Amino acid sequence: MAKDVLCEVNSCRHWANENQCTASSIYIVNNSDKDAHKSAETDCKTFEEK
């Protein structure tokens, strides 16, 4: 499992300095009916607006 989770979405409640994610867990889903092959084909369900 990843030791550090980085995120550049500074409008998220879980965003901290140096792009650190402070969420206790991360939930990412596929945003299409096909298997994802690019990050743009996924969505972070952990996102919460500040």
Give an overview of the whole structure.
This protein is 0% helix and 20% strand. It is mostly beta strands. It contains no helices and four strands. The chain is globular and about 35 Å long. It has strands spanning 15-16, 20-21, 28-30, 42-44. A hairpin with a 3-residue loop joins strand 1 and strand 2. The protein has one domain (1-50). A two-stranded antiparallel ribbon has the order 1-2.
**Count, helices:** 0
CA radius of gyration:
12 Å
Q: Please summarize the sheet with the most strands.
A: 2 strands, antiparallel
Helix content: under 10%
Give the amount of beta strand, in percent: 15-25%
Strand order of the largest sheet: 1-2
Q: What ranges have pLDDT less than 50 throughout 5 or more consecutive residues?
A: none
| SSE string | EEEE
Number of strand segments: 4
First-to-last CA distance:
27 Å
Oligomer: single chain
Question: What structural class do you assign from the helix and strand content?
Answer: mainly beta
Domain unit count:
1
On the 0-100 scale, what is the average pLDDT? 94
What's the shape? globular
Protein name: DUF1540 domain-containing protein
Domain DUF1540: 5-47
Organism: Paenibacillus eucommiae
